[in-house]
Amino acid sequence: MNKYFYRTAEELIAGEGQRLRGLIGQTLFDTWLVWDKAANEWFSDEFVILQFSEDCLGLNFSKFDELAVNWSFIDIQDRLHYWKDYDAFDLEWQRNGNEILSRNIGQRLNGISIVEMYSKSIFVKEPFRPENLGQESEQWGLIAIEFIFSGSVTAIFNALDENGIQDGTHVESIYRHIPL
Fold first, then answer.
1. For 26, which DSSP code?
2. Which end of the chain is less crowded, N or C, counting CB atoms within 10 A of the terminal residue's CB?
3. Distance of alpha carbon 165 from alpha carbon 58, whole angstroms
């Protein structure tokens, strides 16, 4: 499994852009999420899998700005151990377990946008580099991939060290969209 993390839209497009563009025109066939059976809820630390008519895409956000991409179908019969040791949890793969994702099953993918978020930081404390105190840092960071279906947009996004899924696009001024 590919465990390389993309941190910027530029890196993602360079590494995966051609394959992502290849999804456009395909039909969404199935989705898979990891389910915490004891809590009866989505376990959002694992891959979100989108099974299209010809390709299978797995996405997993981590930390504040990392995205792992997987193009081979993850064996859902295998023990969950891709990123961490989950022995303390009662987890299983669940087919079409998210209402937002499930609404798109049978729909043709019309487009994809990579979404970046603008952030600005000011160093207020830097014990080992006091010369940085007061300096500003500005950057655009990879935050989401939006899938455009007929009449809907579904985003898989970074929910601060886990995956998030939302119905609709990121519209605030701190976001910019890079269509593929």
1. P
2. N
3. 13
